[in-house]
Amino acid sequence: MAPAASTSAVDLTSEILHALSDKDPVLSAETFPQVPFESIKAALDRLASRSMVTYEQVEREEATLEPEAEVIVSHGSHEARVFEAVREALDGLSIQDLESKVGDKTVTKVGQGKAFKEKWIKKDGNRLVALVDSINDVTRDQLRVIQETRTHDPKILADLKKRKLLKMQKVISFTISKGPKYALEMIKEETDLTAETLASGSWKTATFKPYNFNAQGADQHSGALHPLNKVRHGFRQIFFEMGFTEMPTNQYVESGFWNFDALFVPQQHPARDLQDTFYVSDPPKAAKPCPVSAADKQDYDEYFRNVRQVHESGKYGSIGYRYPWSEDESLRLVLRTHTTSISTAMLYRLAGQRQDGRVPPARYFSIDRVFRNETVDATHLCEFHQVEGVIADYGLTLGGLMEFLEMFFAKMNVKDLRFKPAYNPYTEPSMEIFSYHKGLNKLIEIGNSGIFRPEMLEAMGLPKDLVVFGFGLSLERPTMIKYGISNIRELLGHQVDLNFVQNNPAVRLDKD
Ligand SMILES: N[C@@H](Cc1ccccc1)C(=O)O
């Protein structure tokens, strides 16, 4: 909304209207020498929008005198001052006397040189004597003209400018003339049709302010998406573009079974230590996996047995880990340490679609919170968001996984990936994904990936020739890079600046 007109702005519009009434209908900004340019322009725009005046903006160059030139205008040029001093002394002056008479070393020195050149003075022995009776102080005359008119012959202006006696300034002025709706007073324009104006009939004669369809609306105080949500949105778009469906991840608590055992993570694995994983003590134990709906015809008991067996003694061509697998351990409750627990449950559901020994190919993704018992520092919290994708299909190869990851990351302008062999209990082979970061000038790890092991997939009843890729990365890292945040506590937690959340633009993952 436009601010209400201040009194001085009203005065100015009325002054402009009056000035136009009793003068020639063309008038320039110099009529209001004390008023700043912006105010005149604003007043003119108000009048012009009502067709009361028309105006044109005129730009020209004006010359203004430098302080030294002001001195010349009042006392004469250096050479004229030297000449006058010499002429006044009837039998000439020594240089020292000249200097004390003029009272300025520079004036004496510069003026002498010029007076010699003009042949106004000459040297007679060691005295200076005048050669003429009077001189024309051209410089002073030129500067006087400029002082009054602010301009002169271009050649003269250029010469004086070179001598640093004046500077040129751009001056903007307005040529104003009466518009078709010119009047002495600005009529108050009504902005609303009210009950009163209708009842009194004053609407018939009132002038209504036209709609300004170009006006900007007032800032709205609305909610704002957190930067993590904006980046999450970008990732979701990429997944949808690539034919993925979103997995339901709305549970933070998992059993050890879905978080670890089903993934062929042995029960002694360090990731399952208290130091790494948060355990839930109440309730003390999860129920055994069971059908999730009436339509779920899977044999969970058999799956549970398969998992136990593949850990304890091996199956599906694997010799297993050879340790006594504990059912209680697998039924402990944990805050999920990765969303791969959900991917696993989804793959088991996919196995339930098996018909004539085949399941359909599938692409799943999720972006949600996971929890790890980490030491909190500038880049780690006890929780973060994991971006995870799973692709199940026939005839997939490791090269295909690399190619897919290159395509996926290229969609966010992350190119030149490097892959490094890694270890996950549930994938073989496994690869860490690295990318060269221009800003940090080094390779940084951006994700983890691999091909799920048969020990995991076959225990679910998935066909032997089905290959399943998996990959995961954090949402926080790309968000911190995109928004230039170096401390994760500026992104999450009580230290987050709400203005930062409110004012940040949407992120474009395809821009650097
Ligand atoms: N679960 C892995 C990511 C991953 C998912 C699927 C396959 C391979 C790796 C992690 O937390 O880092």
End-to-end separation: 36 Å
CATH superfamily of the largest domain: Bira Bifunctional Protein, Domain 2
Query: Which structural category fits the helices and strands?
Result: alpha+beta
Bound small molecules, deduplicated: phenylalanine
The strands making up the biggest β-sheet line up spatially as: 8-12-13-17-16-15-14
**Unreliable spans:** 1-7
Task: State the main characteristics.
single chain, 512 residues, alpha+beta, Ribosomal Protein S8, Chain: A, domain 1, Arc Repressor Mutant, subunit A, BirA Bifunctional Protein, domain 2, 7-stranded mixed beta sheet, 3-stranded antiparallel beta sheet, 17 strands, elongated, disordered N terminus, binds phenylalanine
Report on the architecture of this protein.
With 512 residues, this protein is α+β, with helices and mostly antiparallel strands. Helices cover 35% and strands 22% of the residues. It folds into 3 domains: 7-65 and 147-196, Ribosomal Protein S8, Chain: A, domain 1 (2-Layer Sandwich); 78-136, Arc Repressor Mutant, subunit A; 229-503, Bira Bifunctional Protein, Domain 2 (BirA Bifunctional Protein, domain 2, 2-Layer Sandwich), CATH 3.30.930.10. The strands form 5 sheets. A 7-stranded mixed beta sheet has the order 8-12-13-17-16-15-14, with helices on both faces. A 3-stranded antiparallel beta sheet has the order 2-4-3. It has a 3-stranded antiparallel beta sheet with strand order 9-11-10. The relative contact order is 0.09. Residues 1-7 have low confidence and may be disordered. The structure holds phenylalanine. Phenylalanine binds next to β16 and β17. It is found in: Cytoplasm.
